[in-house]
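Subgroup meeting minutes
Present: P.N., E.W., G.H.
Scribe: E.W.

1. P.N. recapped why we're keeping a running log of single-chain structure predictions: easier to compare across weeks, and new members can see raw inputs and outputs side by side.
2. G.H. added today's entry (190 aa).
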Amino acid sequence: MKTGLLFGSFNPIHTGHLIIAQAALNETGLREIWFMVSPQNPLKSKSGLLGEFDRYRMVELAVESNTRFRASNFEFFLPKPSYTIETLVQLGEKYPNHEFSLIMGEDNLQHLHKWKNHEAILKYHPVFCYPRRDSDGSAFEKYPAVKKFDLPFLDISATAIRQMITQGKSVRYLVPSGAFEYLEENGFYK
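Output recorded in log:
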């Protein structure tokens, strides 16, 4: 089965993530999308990061109504920090009937050279990438094997959502309803 992997901290998951996943289904031939909750991205600070199980629960709640979306805590059981290439190897061993592809934004593509064994990722796994608004396209030129797909430009970020919450502003409709209710019940980011 052609399975797209959308990795992220999901701190918190937001509607932009769901729009990206749906656009990937619409545009790439993928049959399903797994939202891979990363316990700790080796290229990002852990400061302000909610616990992995709370982030995973929000993803579960956000995707539960779409049968082609799946929340995954697979990386929780791997050595930390998580490296995408190692996750892909483990996934391939556990799910041999799946063809795993990566879904990423152009901002991640620009930093792909910093990823552990990024050449192997590109060699053995299709990569689908969506452009960012202020892009010059140079990342796509650097990695011609990466397949571009389009979606509406979004200006939604988890950072902005956390800032809004700390300022006492509502993030309803920026965060999927189940995840929003979980955020509110637990008082996260306040």
